[in-house]
Design goal:
This protein has two domains: 273 residues, Rossmann fold; 101 residues, Dihydrodipicolinate Reductase, domain 2. Helix content is 41%, strand content 18%. It is built from 13 helices and eleven strands. Helix 1 packs across helix 12 and helix 6 crosses helix 8. This is Inositol-3-phosphate synthase.
């Protein structure tokens, strides 16, 4: 069953790694390392196969996917011969990328008209490629947090606002893409901490239209480690006194998060896990710094102080160094495959069971990685038994 993956931010590093990785796995030139959906526990599920995946997307950038993957090879992210091995797949995906929203995300006219254009791009892609279904995944740059607007409260208010030129800015770009996915009859996954579908009005619309959505903010590095360590402290009754994380980022992610308003959305997402796992806030917080010299790589250093029996004060530190696009790409493939399966099973609304993949999972307060994984396994197998 052919499945489309429509990537918002379709010419960025994460999208390029996703398309190149799927092509490499399909051709048998690289193993599916990091692709959780390829684990033995999921092998008997009717997930979309790599042979059946087709890619398109929205991105105003003009640097093509082939050139982007060549740059990733130059930075040591992917093998040096990979761009040539998957060039045909990269060109095929690149031909399916449309400009989408540009600049601030506002076009002349109403937001309703702009969203219709985005939705038409997706439906045209589905028809042109013969895809049975399309999953829209947002892998674009992080947006600043939005100020609540009355139109965000209900589907009726939002629908009315989108039709008025004076309310063209009522929705951030990520939420416009979510509405476009909905109008095209597609599930939506937000891999970023942007607003996306996480508004009461949009939640209502996805439920009303029988479509699932998932998010938000892919859990790829420092927070992945936190989701193992924080439950350890809690379950051993050790009191965490402080937890400070310093993040050094290069590339597009570092440039985007150099903007304090955008960084605020990321920090809020990263902070949620500790607050909920440890029973409240702890001293320290998350600190994000752009370091262009790192390029596609990132470093996180965490310093933790905790108290044990008899008041003994102790310290734990860890350093995480990795490439965000290489960590994110297999998760994007997982999320698209599991979401497509959920869509076929008739699920709608937030997919809380995909919280395993997110820092700030919609519909769920569970952050312990082991429990999230168990929930994912049980849910995924339940989809094949659930009536439509």
């Amino acid at each position: 069953m052919r499945t489309g993956i429509w990537l918002v931010g379709g010419r960025g590093s994460v999208a390029a790694s996703t398309v190149a990785g799927a092509a490499a796995v399909r051709a048998g030139v690289l193993p599916p390392v990091g692709v959780v959906s390829e684990l033995a526990v999921f092998r008997d599920l009717p997930l979309p196969s790599f042979d059946d995946l087709v890619f398109g997307g929205h991105d105003p950038a003009t640097v093509g996917l082939a050139k982007r993957v060549e740059r990733l090879a130059g930075d040591g992210v992917v093998p040096p011969d990979l761009p040539d091995l998957v060039r045909a797949d990269l060109h095929a995906a690149d031909a399916e990328i449309r400009p989408g929203l540009t600049g601030t995300g506002h076009r002349a006219g109403t937001a309703d008209e702009a969203i219709d254009t985005l939705a038409a791009d997706i439906t045209d892609f589905r028809a042109r490629t013969g895809a049975d279904s399309v999953v829209v995944v947002n892998v674009s740059s992080t947006e600043a947090p939005v100020t609540p607007h009355p139109a965000h409260a209900s589907a009726d208010l939002l629908t009315a606002a989108l039709r008025r030129p004076e309310d063209a800015g009522v929705l951030p770009a990520s939420s416009r893409y979510a509405v476009a996915a909905l109008r095209a009859g597609c599930p939506f996954v937000d891999f970023t901490p942007s607003t996306g579908a996480r508004l009461p009005a949009l939640d209502q619309l996805f439920r009303d239209h029988g479509l699932p959505y998932a998010g938000s903010d892919g859990k790829t590095g420092e927070t992945l480690v936190k989701s193992v360590l924080a439950p350890m402290f809690a379950r051993r009754a050790l009191t965490v006194r402080s937890w400070s994380g310093t993040n050094l980022l290069g590339g597009g992610d570092g440039a985007a998060l150099a903007d304090p308003t955008r960084a605020a959305a990321k920090i809020r997402s990263k902070d949620r896990l500790l607050r909920e796992q440890l029973g409240g806030p702890v001293e320290g917080g998350v600190h994000i710094h752009e370091l262009p010299d790192l390029g596609e790589w990132k470093t996180a250093w965490d310093h933790i102080t905790f108290e044990g029996f008899l008041g003994a004060r102790m310290t734990l530190q860890f350093t995480w160094q990795g490439c965000d696009s290489a960590l994110a790409a297999p998760l994007v493939l997982d999320l698209a495959r599991f979401t497509a399966l959920a869509h076929r099973a008739g699920r709608s609304g937030p997919l809380r069971e995909l919280g395993f993949y997110f820092k700030d999972p919609v519909g769920s307060d569970e952050h312990a990685l082991d429990r999230q994984f168990d929930e994912l396994v049980g849910w995924a197998h339940g989809l094949t038994r659930a009536p439509r």
